[in-house]
């Protein structure tokens, strides 16, 4: 029953996030001319930074049908299928990491929605005939996973297509210590950065903005979680939310500090097990093999101790 409730809560939360996305989609598509002007600003900024290599990259990819297919495949199958599979895996095997990834996606998604609504940007494939929408023209699976009627065409900045894949890669690296996971956590988001530009769906600036927004979402989630743990921690806990363990005071022995000696000249043992090079193991210091921490009236001590 608890699992059913958990799944239902997640479905409701992701459903609400989808509604927010569609609401912003309606705002951005109503002002195409402004989106085109904003795209021009992005292009000018890229030229000033020297990172305007969208067209050379796509021209290189278009020389090979295989390269086009690979870019399309990464763009389509490397995003939502990978994100959803990772969320399911984390929910089953690493629940705290699931919450971190989910919340980081929600926070970065909310930041992205604000940017989409206030700074809509036309992607390369819709701005000029020099760019080709390779996904739409060469892939039928695009119609299945990303129906054009449900996609915000002017949500170029930031590229959460890349940003969320970056968060997924960081989750892989955090929960898996193997070499394969370490390599995949770098290769997968890097491949998506290549795909979103090569397919004409994003500017290079969009990828950088997507990384900033995604990492901001992750950082805010970690700050939120630390604050929540600290606020719920009882007064006797440490700074990390763990119970503070008081240092145990040393036991005071009722035996005098000067240890009497038996007839054989060997030191008798403290009852708290402190000294004596010739001492016997702790369990053999009392009759019956058990130690005693009480007074002599309550223990059957040897005659030398009483």
Could you outline the blueprint of secondary structure elements for this entry?
Blueprint: H1 2-28, H2 32-49, H3 54-62, H4 65-77, H5 80-93, H6 95-118, H7 124-127, H8 134-138, H9 142-145, H10 160-175, H11 179-198, H12 204-232
Helix pairs in contact: 1-6, 4-11, 5-6, 6-10, 6-12, 10-11, 10-12
Give me a quick take on this structure:
It is built from 12 helices and no strands. The protein is mostly helical and 306 residues long.
Protein architecture, described:
This protein is mostly helical and 306 residues long. The protein has 2 domains: 2-232; 253-306, no CATH class. The chain contains 12 helices and no strands. The radius of gyration is 33 Å and the shape is globular. Mean pLDDT is 79; it is low at 238-242, 244-255 and 265-306.
What labels describe this entry?
disordered C terminus; mainly alpha; 12 helices; 2 domains
Tally of discrete structural domains: 2
In DSSP terms (H or I, runs of 4 or more residues), the helix count works out at: 12
- Largest sheet composition: none
Order of helices and strands: HHHHHHHHHHHH
Helix/strand structural class: mainly alpha
**N→C terminal distance:** 64 Å
Compute the CA-based radius of gyration.
33 Å
